[in-house]
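for the recovery benchmark. C-alpha cells below, seq after
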C-alpha cells in the first residue's frame, strides 16, 4: 500500500436516501395493509352484527304474528307491527304456507313498506324456512331501492304446531355502507396525516442511523490512504458504537504498526551503519599492514611478525563480530526454535567458573560461587545457556577493579534464580534501558574493544528459553544480573 495515496471519498447520501425510502415504503405498506384490513373487518363485522340483530327481530316478530294468528287478533298484530316499523323502520313481508292445513289469512299476509324484492330469493328462503322451521338469512336485491338488502326469514307457527307462513324482514345496507365509506375516508385521511408526520420524524432517526455508518466508511477510506490518525469519534452504546470502537482500535493498531515499521527501518539502517563502522576499522588496519608488507616498507623481521600478529588479531575480531551478528540474527528470528533438552544449570555454572577462572586471575579477581544442593534442571540448550552466562561473567570481570569479588549464585525452588554480581564501575540509571540494544557500548575504557552485541545476544537467548532477566546497578558500586527460569518439572506440567 502506498502511503498518502489519494482515495476518492464520495459524499453522496445514497445510504440515507435508501434507508429513508425503505422506511417510508415499509410505513406506507403497513398503513395501507392496516387500513384495508380494518375496513374489511369493519364491513364484515357490521354485516354480521346487523344480520344477527335482524334475525332476532324477525324471530320476535314471527312469534308475535303467530300469537295473534292463533288468537285471530289481527288488530293487535297490526298495531304491534306498526309500532315496531315506526321505531326500527323495518321492511317486512309475510307469506302464507299454502301447504298448511290452516295457512295465514289475508289479514296477516302482504308487504308493508317494500314494493319489490327478489322473488326467486324469497321463494328459496320460504321453502328452507318451512322445511327446517328455523330462521334463514341471506342477501338479495331490492329493485325499488336499487340496493342490496339483508333478508331474514322466520317461521310463523300456526295451529297444531305446523308452519302457517313465513315472515321476512329486510334491511337496506346502503346506509351502513355509507357509514363504512365515511369511516374509510377518515382512515385514509388519518393515515396520510400519520404518514406525513412519520416521514418528518423519520429524517432525524434515519440520519442518526446512517451518519455513524458514513463516518465509519469515511474513516476506513482515510486509513486506506495511509493516514492512521483518522478516528470515527463515535461513542454510542450500541452495535454501531462497538463497530466504531473496533475501527478506532484498528486505526490505533495501524498507527502503532506504522511506528514499529519506521523504527524497524531505522534500526535496519542503524544496523548496517554500525556493521559498516565496526568492520571498517579492522579492514582499514589490515589493509595498511598488508600494503606495508607488500610494498616492502617494513623489512625488520620483528616488525613484520608484529604486523602479522596484529593482522591476525584483527581477523579474529572480525570473525567474532560476524559470528555474533549471525547468532543475534538467528536469535531474533521468530521462526527459530532452540532444540531443548533437560539441562542441569549446576554443570553449566561449574564449567563457566572454571573457564572464567583464568580471566579472573589476570586481575586477581575472586569468584565467590554459591550453589544450591538440589539439582537445577531446566529445558534448554546447554551451549546457548553457557554462551549467555559467559557474556555476563566476562562483562563482570571486564568492568571490575583488581582484587575485587564477583558473586555467582544459583538457587532452585519454585523457580530457578541465577545471579552474577560484581563490585565494578556500575551502570547509570539512564543507561540501563539501553544496555541490551544492538551495538550499544558505554564510553568506558574497559569497553573500547567491545562489539556492543554481547548483552543483546544474552537477552535473546534468555527469551528463547522463556526466561526473564533483571538488572540492578549503582554507579561506582557494581551491577547484578539476575536470570529467572522455570524448572523442568514445571515445564512438563504445562
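predicted aa per position
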Amino acid at each position: 500500500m502506498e502511503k498518502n495515496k489519494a482515495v476518492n471519498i464520495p459524499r453522496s447520501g445514497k445510504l440515507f436516501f435508501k434507508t429513508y425510502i425503505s422506511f417510508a415504503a415499509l410505513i406506507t405498506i403497513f398503513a395501507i395493509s392496516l387500513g384495508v384490513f380494518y375496513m374489511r373487518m369493519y364491513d364484515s363485522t357490521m354485516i354480521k352484527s346487523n344480520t344477527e340483530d335482524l334475525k332476532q327481530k324477525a324471530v320476535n316478530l314471527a312469534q308475535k304474528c303467530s300469537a295473534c294468528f292463533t288468537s285471530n287478533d289481527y288488530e293487535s298484530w297490526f298495531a304491534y307491527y306498526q309500532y315496531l316499523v315506526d321505531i326500527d323502520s323495518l321492511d317486512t313481508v309475510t307469506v302464507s304456507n299454502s301447504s298448511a292445513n290452516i295457512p295465514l289469512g289475508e289479514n296477516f299476509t302482504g308487504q308493508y313498506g317494500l314494493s319489490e324484492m327478489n322473488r326467486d330469493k324469497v321463494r328459496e328462503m320460504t321453502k328452507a324456512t318451512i322445511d327446517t322451521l328455523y330462521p334463514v338469512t341471506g342477501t338479495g336485491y331490492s329493485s325499488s331501492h336499487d340496493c342490496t338488502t339483508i333478508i331474514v326469514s322466520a317461521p310463523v307457527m300456526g295451529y297444531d304446531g305446523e308452519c302457517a307462513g313465513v315472515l321476512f324482514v329486510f334491511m337496506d345496507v346502503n346506509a351502513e355502507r355509507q357509514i363504512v365509506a365515511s369511516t374509510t375516508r377518515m382512515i385514509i385521511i388519518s393515515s396520510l396525516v400519520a404518514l406525513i408526520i412519520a416521514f418528518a420524524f423519520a429524517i432525524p432517526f434515519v440520519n442518526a442511523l446512517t451518519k455513524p455508518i458514513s463516518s465509519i466508511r469515511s474513516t476506513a477510506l482515510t486509513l486506506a490512504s495511509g493516514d492512521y490518525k483518522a478516528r470515527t469519534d463515535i461513542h454510542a452504546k450500541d452495535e454501531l458504537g462497538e463497530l466504531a470502537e473496533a475501527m478506532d482500535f484498528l486505526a490505533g493498531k495501524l498507527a502503532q504498526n506504522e511506528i514499529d515499521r519506521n523504527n524497524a527501518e531505522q534500526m535496519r539502517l542503524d544496523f548496517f551503519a554500525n556493521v559498516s563502522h565496526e568492520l571498517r576499522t579492522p579492514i582499514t588496519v589490515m589493509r595498511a599492514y598488508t600494503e606495508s608488507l607488500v610494498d616492502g616498507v617494513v623489512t625488520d623481521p620483528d616488525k613484520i611478525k608484529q604486523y602479522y600478529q596484529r593482522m591476525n588479531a584483527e581477523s579474529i575480531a572480525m570473525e567474532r563480530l560476524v559470528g555474533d551478528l549471525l547468532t543475534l540474527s538467528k536469535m531474533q528470528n521468530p521462526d527459530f526454535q532452540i532444540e531443548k533438552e533437560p539441562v542441569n544449570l549446576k554443570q553449566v555454572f561449574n564449567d563457566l567458573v572454571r573457564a572464567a577462572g583464568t580471566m579472573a586471575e589476570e586481575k586477581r579477581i575472586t569468584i565467590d560461587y554459591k550453589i544450591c544442593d538440589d539439582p537445577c534442571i531446566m529445558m534448554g540448550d546447554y551451549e546457548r545457556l553457557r554462551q549467555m552466562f559467559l557474556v555476563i561473567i566476562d562483562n563482570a570481570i571486564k568492568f571490575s577493579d583488581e582484587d575485587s569479588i564477583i558473586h555467582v549464585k544459583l538457587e532452585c525452588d519454585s523457580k530457578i534464580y541465577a545471579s552474577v554480581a560484581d563490585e565494578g564501575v556500575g551502570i547509570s540509571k539512564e543507561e540501563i534501558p539501553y544496555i541490551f540494544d544492538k551495538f550499544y557500548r558505554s564510553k568506558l575504557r574497559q569497553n573500547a574493544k567491545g562489539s556492543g552485541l554481547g548483552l543483546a545476544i544474552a537477552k535473546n537467548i534468555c527469551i528463547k528459553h522463556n526466561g526473564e532477566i533483571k538488572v540492578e546497578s549503582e554507579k561506582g558500586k557494581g551491577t547484578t544480573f539476575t536470570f529467572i527460569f522455570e524448572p523442568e518439572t514445571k515445564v512438563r506440567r504445562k
